[in-house]
Amino acid sequence: MNAPEHARNLDGAAVQPGDLVGYDMIRRLIAFPTVSRDSNLALIDWVQRYLEGFGATTTLTFDDDRRKANLFATLAANDGNAKDAGIVLSGHTDVVPVDGQPWDSDPFAATLVGDRLHGRGVADMKSFTAIGLAFVPEFVRRGLARPLHFALSYDEEIGCIGVRRLIADVLARGVAPAGCIIGEPTGMQLVVANKGRKTWRCRVRGHEAHSSLTPQGVNAVQIACQLVTWITERGRVLREGHRQDPAYDVPFTTTHVGMINGGTALNIVPRDCAFELEIRHLPMDDPDALFAELRAYADSLVPAMQAVDPATYIQFDALSEMPGFDNAARTPIIDLAHECSGSDLEHKVSYGTEAALFHGASMPAVICGPGHIEQAHQPNEWVRLEQLARCEAFMRRLADHVCAG
Ligand SMILES: [Zn+2]
After folding, report:
1. Which end of the chain is more exposed for a tag (fewer CB within 10 A), N or C?
2. Is 371:188 a contact under the CB 8 Å cutoff?
3. How far is the CA of 349 from the centre of ligand 1 (A)?
């Protein structure tokens, strides 16, 4: 984000930890080492007991071996309404690993360095969740005019796995929120759309031969490279085409090959080559149509391969799918988020979030949270105290909207 950073509070003084309602809560959540591969149950258990202490009703949904859980918690309105027209504050509990990264402090002990708080997850994305939790005493003291929900998920960082079960459970129980605020790091700017992403692995099976006899072989590496070249060329066409949305930093659909592996030795025509590709698409673009063109091109190569050896093939395996989303119309949650953020600006981002899954399940979503995506997943991940103060100002204005008094 390009907005200038002013580490100043409303009085013009630098933000101090003591100015922040959520500072201790952030440090507490960072101290749970919830790397995606590990259990998040200690954090979930702590938050569940904290929220139940304020009268929240809670539901857990687990992964298959019950090592990880999502938490959905509801603070009911004063009139008892716990289901309709509520607001969801959503955050993933998992963080990316720190293995091999040069950290200057313990990643799981949030450390103040000047006006920055360092720690794994301070930007992506425990601070938003922690600040929401820290405001619960105020929400409860003032009483709620509509339900307030917390949605804490597992396994976001490895493909938004966990939240799908949480959303299915919410729908099954007839809970119908008015909208959802996802606190991924946006510099507290309002994000109303993100790109979708589909990924595949392509496996080319050729036919081995001595490299002095190339016509008797089928070179899997070279056929894979033909496909990669096609993917690169289509990426160039998309880049130069007219289907663009300038609200994104990368305003067009992109294609990308991130891994390739093939061959055994230079004097062997390689039998196997595999690569992985992604299509990261504007919500208005159809990744399946593009993939169908790639598939057709691959099919056109197969007859010449099978003329040498009928056992050769080109196979595609779907790996993952994240839909994109775009608030085509102005939804009430966008109006609310504008008022809470105090800004009329809207942005769109190229990375995927859980927002699309909420949005696609009749829970219109926006993304707005403290910190910046540039610091996410990095060693010495940090967030400025000024960003935390902005998030707290957002939460205060949210309280003015959802509270009865
Ligand atoms: Zn995140």
Report:
1. C
2. no
3. 13
Q: What is the pLDDT of residues 15-71, one digit of tens each?
A: 999 999 999 999 999 999 999 999 999 999 999 999 999 999 999 999 999 999 999
Q: Taking Cα atoms as reference points, which of 300, 316, 318 lies closest to residue 205?
A: 316
Tokens encoding 163: 């939240």
Find out whether 247 and 196 touch, Cβ atoms under 8 Å. Answer: no
- Statement: residue 397 has pLDDT above 50: yes
Distance 83 CA to ligand 1 centre (A): 27
* Amino acid (one-letter) located at 102: P
Q: What six digits make up the tokens of 220?
A: 């899997």
Say if CB 148 and CB 76 are below 8 A apart.
Answer: no
Ligand 1: distance of its center to the CA of 369 in Å?
Answer: 10
Measured CA to CA, the distance from residue 159 to residue 228 in angstroms comes to 24
How far is it, in rounded angstroms, from Cα 342 to Cα 320? 36
- Report pTM: 0.86
Residue written as token pair 């699309």: 356
Ligand 1 center from residue 157 Cα (angstroms) = 7
CA of 260 from ligand 1 middle (Å) equals 27
Residue 328 is predicted with a pLDDT of: 75
Nearest to 153 by CA among 54, 34, 270, 49: 34
For residue 283, report the distance from its CA to the centre of ligand 1, in Å.
20
- Output the CA 88–ligand 1 centroid distance in Å: 16
| Cα 151 to middle of ligand 1, angstroms | 14
Residues 6+ apart with CB under 8 A from 395: 131, 132, 135, 340
Q: Say what the pLDDT of residue 4 is.
A: 41
